[in-house]
Specification:
One of its GO terms (biological process) is methylation. The chain has 272 residues and is of the alpha/beta class.
Length: 272
């Protein structure tokens, strides 16, 4: 059972994991370096625990102590009870859900190891918006994608905003980073995947014609908002594919495009 510790000093060093949560650049550097991430809200905290992440501590306002009582009873990590005002002074924002947990990261798997036993994967290049990362992971989990590979410059899936937008789906889909981009696309191809680059280019094959759901192993490549996949990534693909558009719309937000494409790639629909 965890100890419940009332804290009334925002500078208490025991709250260090929660300081400056709105400072994106600081947290992007600090959290991976210190091996932690922040789970926000009851559902996300529970999903992180269910996924096997070890809890370092919890920061709760008084009314959330009873809600999280079963977790408090099961986890030996300390629980810091604070007022809403103090929580805001520590974190830098009003903690609407009243419950935060600092969780210990797990070592990322090697990309080649992650590919073993998978059939439908996502490969992201330079997707550096945390909201988009969270949305893509949520769709990947919901639509049956097996794993995610990230280029070195993709945003952190375990950053608080990504975790929140995904509603904890980042814990459900395993991921790894490709350190040598785009050369490491060869690792994906050698594992038997056909690399499908999603692009609005007119010469790309419409997804329904490409019939990715019939492939034995398919890797869908997604690029950043606006610029899309780089020239090097497009050259590394086996085929370019696109979502047909109507009413003069030339592209979708990468999160929306990902959801449409995941359905086409992962769902075992009969070929027309």
């Amino acid at each position: 059972m965890a100890d419940i510790i009332t804290v009334d000093d925002p500078d208490d060093p025991r709250l260090a994991d929660y300081t400056g949560l709105t400072d994106v650049e600081l947290r992007r550097r600090r959290e991976p370096a210190e091996g932690l991430f922040i789970a926000e809200g009851e559902k996300v905290i529970r999903r992180a625990r269910h996924a096997g992440y070890r809890m370092r501590s919890m920061l709760l306002s008084a009314k959330w102590v009873d809600v999280m009582r079963d977790v408090i009873d099961e986890v030996p990590a300390p629980v810091y009870a604070v007022s809403p005002d103090l929580a805001e002074r520590v974190t830098g924002y009003h903690v609407h859900r009243g419950a935060l947990a600092s969780m210990q990261r797990k070592p990322l798997p090697d990309a080649a190891e992650l590919l073993a036993g998978t059939r439908r994967i996502v490969v992201m290049e330079a997707v550096n918006d945390h909201t988009n990362i969270g949305a893509i992971f949520r769709s990947a989990a919901a639509l049956g994608m097996d794993a995610v590979l990230l280029s070195p410059d993709c945003a952190d899936p375990l950053y608080r905003r990504s975790v929140k937008v995904s509603m904890g789906a980042v814990f459900s889909v395993p991921y790894a980073r490709l350190e040598n981009w785009p050369r490491d696309l060869a690792v994906v191809r050698e594992a038997g995947f056909r690399l499908l680059a999603l692009t609005p280019a007119e010469k790309a094959t419409p997804l329904d014609e490409a019939a990715p759901h019939t492939l034995e192993r398919a890797a869908l490549m997604l690029g950043a908002e606006g610029g899309g996949l780089s020239t090097g990534a497009l050259r590394g693909a086996d085929e370019w594919v696109r979502i047909p558009m109507a009413h003069g719309v030339d592209s979708l937000n990468v999160g929306a495009a990902a959801a449409v494409a995941f359905y086409a790639v992962a769902t075992g629909r009969p070929a027309s």
